[in-house]
Design a protein that fits this description.
Blueprint lengths: L22 H19 L6 H4 L6 H19 L7 H32 L2
Length: 117
């Protein structure tokens, strides 16, 4: 018998924390943008029921992106565990994904009311 020490992973002590905090917010915000503009990018040969099915889910996805970004920033406060840029990008893109359609809806309602329709 030899006195070789068997480790399951020889570099287990050398690995640091993986810096992935904040990327969830960014991924959710990209998914919200895809859900928002996706129906208009798909070919018209696909039935409208199928093309516009994911459209109502963009708002909850964008809100989840903002909430997860704020939570990631709160968890990263005072430490160097993650990259804050990913969280800020998710918060910004999620907010824009909510604000732009809201502004368009308010503008359309105002314009239709003014036109007397």
């Amino acid at each position: 018998m030899t006195s070789v020490r068997w480790n399951t992973w020889p570099l287990a002590g050398d690995l640091g924390l993986v810096k992935v905090m904040g990327k969830t917010s960014w991924v959710l915000s990209i998914a919200a943008v895809v859900l928002l503009i996706g129906p208009w990018l798909l070919p018209s040969t696909i039935p409208q029921r199928i093309r516009f099915f994911p459209f109502p889910f963009f708002a909850p996805m964008a809100i989840a992106a903002v909430v997860s970004g704020v939570n990631a920033l709160r968890d990263m406060r005072g430490s160097e565990r993650g990259n804050r840029c990913w969280a800020w990008a998710g918060i910004t893109l999620g907010s824009v994904t909510i604000l732009v359609p809201s502004i368009v809806i308010v503008w359309a309602c105002w314009d239709l009311t003014r036109a007397g329709v």
